[in-house]
């Protein structure tokens, strides 16, 4: 089984990590993993919807052609809340989308006041509004588009300085939307944000529960892999190949060293395949 993870940048590694660290993933029949990053158009959170939807389909189409995965995890809320429909129409392989974890957050909140930190695009999506209408009827939900956190998460993974003030400002801007001051649960509705959990916790003026979709996605992927047999997931058995759309960011990714699981050591991408696109629409 070959699983491909897709994101604009490195945020999808928070989902890769959930799968690789999951205790039940060890017997999983995954022989190969690929990580697709649209580095030439990173970030996605401020792009026009119609253009972005076409772009995502194009990049995933080219990736499917190049690497023939059995399953694609759209490890990006901004992409999933927009393009899951078109992707499923275009391709026969299964897609697992990552969308804001609004249902578990509404269930876990004691105060029934929940915050959502996402990209401005995810905050504005009908898909997000629909999740709130379906699963958080008895909950006050406050949304904040925190584009600046995406860059901070990239900085952290790439070993650059992280600006704690930017993180504190974003969290406090979300908390300020709640006049009752009882918000107790925050959905990390961008795959980059779980990578900043320690910094967000340090920025919180009181204890907050952070909720994301990572574990649920890992479980869904494991269900879809059932029946496939191979060696356990590990840095030795499961090379992670990198697919990018090029540019300076892609060169930084090539040199990246990162930890995925507690027992699985440090990863580097095993190979790098650059897909070329014309960047005419912005
Ligand atoms: N990681 C992405 C998400 O889950 C998007 C970040 C961006 O490109 O703005 O929404």
Automatic annotation (TrEMBL):
Active site: 76, 190
Keyword annotations from UniProtKB, A to Z: Cell shape, Cell wall biogenesis/degradation, Isomerase, Peptidoglycan synthesis
Residues binding substrate, per UniProt: 7-8, 44-45, 77-78, 191-192
EC number(s) given by UniProt: 5.1.1.3
NCBIfam families, per database record: glut_race
InterPro entries on file: Asp/Glu/hydantoin_racemase (IPR015942), Asp/Glu_race (IPR001920), Asp/Glu_racemase_AS_1 (IPR018187), Asp/Glu_racemase_AS_2 (IPR033134), Glu_race (IPR004391)
Catalytic activity: L-glutamate = D-glutamate
Biological-process GO terms, alphabetical: cell wall organization; peptidoglycan biosynthetic process; regulation of cell shape
GO molecular function terms listed in the Swiss-Prot or TrEMBL record: glutamate racemase activity
PROSITE patterns to which the protein is assigned, alphabetical: ASP_GLU_RACEMASE_1, ASP_GLU_RACEMASE_2
Chain's role: Provides the (R)-glutamate required for cell wall biosynthesis.
Species per Swiss-Prot/TrEMBL record: Marinagarivorans cellulosilyticus
Lineage: Bacteria, Pseudomonadati, Pseudomonadota, Gammaproteobacteria, Cellvibrionales
EC top class, as a word: isomerase
Pathway(s) this gene product operates in, as recorded in its UniProt entry: Cell wall biogenesis; peptidoglycan biosynthesis
Pfam families: Asp_Glu_race (PF01177)
Family label: Belongs to the aspartate/glutamate racemases family.
Protein name: Glutamate racemase
